[in-house]
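ok, trying the design again with the full structure, not the truncated one.
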């Protein structure tokens, strides 16, 4: 039997050995999903919503054990695991509250005996290859609207968050979603490849650009609905009229929360030369106050790096930056002991010759670059192949809006960062992906419109 080992990234200990899927089992699960989907879609929407409401209740009921499971397999600090689960609840509420009007039939013309109507039908069977850094958020951004709109879901959680994926399945099945309508696939890359080979109607992926590009190529000839939420190199500009202390405290959290392992983590900071030094001092002092340690401790802010290979990426970026003239202000090294640990790291005097300012870090590492003014800041913010999020700190709303209007990013922030709302679409420019999740547009992503032309006889 094929199995998938699960390791705790905080200490390297194996915590589970799970039965895994293979090509044969994936094909069988896909066939059962195809067979089960029409009956699920035929259920009144109220009944599907009732299942999701019961699922929400299960999340609330089991929140503490779910948080512990997520922390053990990802290294996320326990209070951040709780934050994720608590933050999931308003997302579920949004989907439950908005699905009725979003998928209701629309009459767009009715005159002279001719009626034109739009019907929103489910895609059918959708595949979801999800991420480990926010497994509940990222997974449910797809799972909940897909199920509400009448689709069957073949869900492959990341191999680094599989126990959480299985808990998602358990709660959905307990809530009344049939097992063949929501199916969890266990395994690593080969299982994802087996999923792509199935006759699915949509593929929703969150992960790296490299994997996203392979997925896009793999399904291109089949014209399935494709959504790719990929990486980012998210910049923020701190203007000279901003409060350097307040901006530093906000951005330090935006850069280091979840140990920097967020798609929308602040990854590049540009600071006006007039307040640069004050900002850097405040930023470094804030980061030095972040406690690293046992992810199960309530006091821990910096947790473990989930994937061991990322340590090499962080080492290489720091060495490259220092070798090209950057000043290491704090951190810059692995932490001792078992497991995957990296010190919270701040570098100043950086520039765009350095990998740190061009390629995704996905860890607790940040570069701060001095700029002469708005024009230089905007130019540097747009000097990237990514375009997920970007922000500006200034007390002047007109200035902020003028600057952010020039930045190529799917989400922009004024005096805030690292924030996602279920009411707003989550999308990106360039290599940050295609398609979107969240908002009413995200719900419609799981439907296909059918146009009705209805002429009265006579």
């Amino acid at each position: 039997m094929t199995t998938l080992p699960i390791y705790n990234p905080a200490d390297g200990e194996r915590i589970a050995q799970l039965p895994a899927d293979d090509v044969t089992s994936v094909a069988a699960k896909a066939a059962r999903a195809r067979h089960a989907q029409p009956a699920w879609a035929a259920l009144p929407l109220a009944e599907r919503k009732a299942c999701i409401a019961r699922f929400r209740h299960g999340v609330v009921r089991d929140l503490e054990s779910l948080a512990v499971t997520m922390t053990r397999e990802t290294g996320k600090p326990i209070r951040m695991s709780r934050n994720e689960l608590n933050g999931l609840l308003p997302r579920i509420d949004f989907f439950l509250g908005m699905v009725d009007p979003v998928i209701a039939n629309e009459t767009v013309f009715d005159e002279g005996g001719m009626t034109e109507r739009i019907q929103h039908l489910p895609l059918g069977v959708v595949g979801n290859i999800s991420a480990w850094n926010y497994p509940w958020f990222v997974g449910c951004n797809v799972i909940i609207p897909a199920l509400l709109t009448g689709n069957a879901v073949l869900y492959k959680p990341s191999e680094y968050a599989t126990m959480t994926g299985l808990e998602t399945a358990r709660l959905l099945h307990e809530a009344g979603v049939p097992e063949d309508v929501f199916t969890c696939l266990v395994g690593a890359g080969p299982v994802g490849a087996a999923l792509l080979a199935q006759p699915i109607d949509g593929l929703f992926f969150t992960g790296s650009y490299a994997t996203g590009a392979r997925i896009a190529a793999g399904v291109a000839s089949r014209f399935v609905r494709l959504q790719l939420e990929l990486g980012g190199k998210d910049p923020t500009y701190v203007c000279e009229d901003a409060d350097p202390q307040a901006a530093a405290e906000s951005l330090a959290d935006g850069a280091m929360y979840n140990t920097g392992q967020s798609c929308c983590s602040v990854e590049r900071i540009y600071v006006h030369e007039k307040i640069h030094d004050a900002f850097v001092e405040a930023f470094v002092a804030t980061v030095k106050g972040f406690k690293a340690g046992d992810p199960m401790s309530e006091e821990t802010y910096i947790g473990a790096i989930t994937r061991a290979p990322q340590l090499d990426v962080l080492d290489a970026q720091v060495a490259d930056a220092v070798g090209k003239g950057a000043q290491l202000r704090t951190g810059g090294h692995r932490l001792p002991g078992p497991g995957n640990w990296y010190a919270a790291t701040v570098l100043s005097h950086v520039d765009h010759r350095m990998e740190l300012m061009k390629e995704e870090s996905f860890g607790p590492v940040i570069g701060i670059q001095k700029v002469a003014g708005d024009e230089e800041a905007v130019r540097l913010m747009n000097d990237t192949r990514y375009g997920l999020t970007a922000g500006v700190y200034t007390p002047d709303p007109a200035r902020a809006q003028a600057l952010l209007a020039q930045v190529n990013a799917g989400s922009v922030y004024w005096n805030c960062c690292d924030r996602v709302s279920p009411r707003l679409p989550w999308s990106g420019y360039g290599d940050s992906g295609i398609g979107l999740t969240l908002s009413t547009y995200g719900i419609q992503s799981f439907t296909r419109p059918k146009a009705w032309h209805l002429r009265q006889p006579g």
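Keeping the full-length input from now on. The radius of gyration is 23 Å.
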